[in-house]
Every structure is written in C-alpha cells, then in structure tokens.
Amino acid sequence: MKKLLCEMEAYAQEYNVPIIKAEAADILLREAMEKKPLHILEVGTAIGYSALRMAECLGEGGRITTIELSDERADLAEAYIARSPYADAITVLRGDAAEVLPTLTDTYDFVFIDAAKGQYERYLDAIEARLADGAAIAADNVLFRGYVMDEQCEVPRRFRTIVNRLRQFLAMLDEKPQYEVMVYPEGDGIAICKYKKI
Ligand SMILES: C[S@@+](CC[C@H](N)C(=O)[O-])C[C@H]1O[C@@H](n2cnc3c(N)ncnc32)[C@H](O)[C@@H]1O
After folding, report:
1. Is any atom of ligand 1 closer than 6 Å to the C-beta of 114?
2. Is 164 exposed, middle or buried (0-12, 13-18, 19+ CB in 10 A)?
3. What is the pairing mode between strands 190-195 and 179-184?
4. Dihedral through CA 180, CA 185, CA 190, CA 193, nearest 10?
5. Quick one: which atom of ligand 1 is closest to the CA of 8?
6. pLDDT digits (tens, 9 = 90+) for 144-182
7. Distance from the alpha carbon of residue 114 to the mean position of ligand 1, in angstroms
8. What is the spatial distance between Cα 63 and Cα 40, in angstroms, rounded to a whole number?
9. Structure-derived torsion over alpha carbons of residues 37, 119, 171, 160, reported in degrees to the nearest 10
10. Which CATH number does the domain 2-195 belong to among 3.40.50.720, 3.40.630.30, 2.60.40.10, 3.40.50.150?
11. CB of 116 shorter than 6 A to ligand 1
12. For residue 115, which atom of ligand 1 is closest to its CA?
C-alpha cells in the first residue's frame, strides 16, 4: 500500500492533480481512525488517493462510495484502487455530485467533501437526509488560500464566488444546531463537523 500511495503522490505532483495535503490528511485520518466508519461517502475522488487513505481507517466490513466528475480521473482511480487491498470496498460513481448525491439511498457515517468549492452547501443539503446520527463530515479547503477568514484582504475577482460560498457554508454549519463544527488551519483549512439528528 505504501508503494502504491507514493506512486499516486508522484503522479499527482507530475500531472497537477490536487490531492489532499499531508497536514490536512493527518486531521482527516485521525477523525476517520477514531470513528472506524462503516460507510464513507466521498465527494471528489480525483485519482482515488484520499479514498485509499481513508480505506485504511474503515471498520470491519466497511466500504467507501466516492463520486468523480472527470471520467479520466475516475478511470485512473479505479485502476489504482484495483491494485490495492481495497478493490472490493470502494465504488467510484461517475458524474456531477450535485446530480449523483440526490440519487443515493444508503446511510453514511463519514463524509468527505472535496469537490467544487462553491458547491459545498449544496452537497451537504443533498446528503443530510442520508447521514447517520453522529456522522462525521470533513470538508477540505474551507479557508481557501487564507481568503475565507480574512475580511480585510481584497479577494481577487476570480475567487470571489468561491470565497463567498465557503463563508456561507461555514456560517450555515455554525448556525444549524444539528452541526458542531471545528475548523483546522492545516493545509488549505479543513472543517470537521459532527452531525446530530434533531
Ligand atoms: C481536490 S480534488 C479531490 C482530491 C481527492 N479527494 C484526494 O484528496 O485524493 C477534487 C476533485 O473533484 C472533482 N470534481 C469537481 N467538481 C465536481 C463535481 N461537480 N462533481 C464531482 N466531482 C467533481 C474534480 O474533477 C477533482 O478530481
């Protein structure tokens, strides 16, 4: 597994595939290891790197469903996953998460949101009915290059929508009583939320 993950890290670096940063991965995997989830939902597979890292934290008989928009990346993810010990535990679903999420019928006790940064609130809305009581939700890049928390700094025009939507996403998590959220600055900022059915 270590060799496979190193190969994936090298591929991501060479071909500019954005995979989770090491410091954010530490937070994500600490949560997953503590929870030992039975069904993880990942939004944003890329080449399957974080899915394989999380697979090592699954409880017995656990599985992962992961969604990817790009067919090219989904193909690569499936090829890497097939070479891992988790080939039977991970399913890659193809398509736009905003369309795939409302079609899901299972229940998830751990969710990792890591796809289109401006769509996190939409993703969570679509998933909420499928969350197990006590589920953990991680969302990567929530501080987006430091712009999200820094109200003084001028956000470049091309990032304004993303930054505003990430701010709205964090404000929504803060306001809704069913979520308890902690934002860690590691990597590009990673939020870890606990969901309580009310
Ligand atoms: C940051 S990468 C995911 C990295 C991966 N979680 C990891 O750490 O190894 C984000 C991925 O989300 C995918 N993506 C972007 N928009 C999407 C959408 N609307 N639906 C599904 N996947 C999407 C991109 O193609 C990209 O591969």
Report:
1. yes
2. middle
3. antiparallel
4. -10
5. 9
6. 999 999 888 899 999 999 999 999 999 999 999 999 999
7. 6
8. 6
9. 140
10. 3.40.50.150
11. yes
12. 12
